[in-house]
Design brief:
six-stranded mixed beta sheet; globular
Length: 123
């Protein structure tokens, strides 16, 4: 079972978009995380100004850790995806702003990272 699942919404299926997702997955694998990619038409949010990527952290990535260690694991993933989204915007100034949502094994939202005009914000 993968430790992280990247959910690609029914949207941009261009070669550039697929390459960007492959780059994100490679970055997560560099952290030693097993990654799977799923495409799901049912998650479509219709037309939106932001490009949304959802990442689901599986139970395996959080097994045996508590408190601060969970926070550091989520932080490592957050840092990697924020850098990925920022690089996409730096390479292509026409790239839509990015929203990356991190979900826990229970399906609840843990963190939202937004990158717009090179600025990273989160909540």
């Amino acid at each position: 079972m993968p430790e992280v699942t990247v959910l690609v919404e029914n949207g941009d299926r261009s070669a550039a978009s697929r390459e960007a997702i492959a780059e994100l997955c490679a970055g997560l694998r560099d952290l030693g995380i097993e990654v799977a990619v799923e495409e799901d038409a049912a998650t479509s949010r219709a037309v939106t100004w932001y490009e949304v990527t959802m990442i689901y952290l599986g139970g395996k990535i959080l097994d045996g850790v508590t408190g601060g260690l969970i926070d550091s694991g989520v932080s490592a993933v957050r840092d990697r995806v924020a850098a990925w989204a920022k690089r996409r915007q730096e390479r292509d100034p026409q790239q839509r702003p990015q929203v990356v949502e991190l979900y826990g094994p229970d399906g609840k939202l843990i963190k939202t990272v937004r990158v717009k005009s090179g600025e990273i914000t989160e909540d």
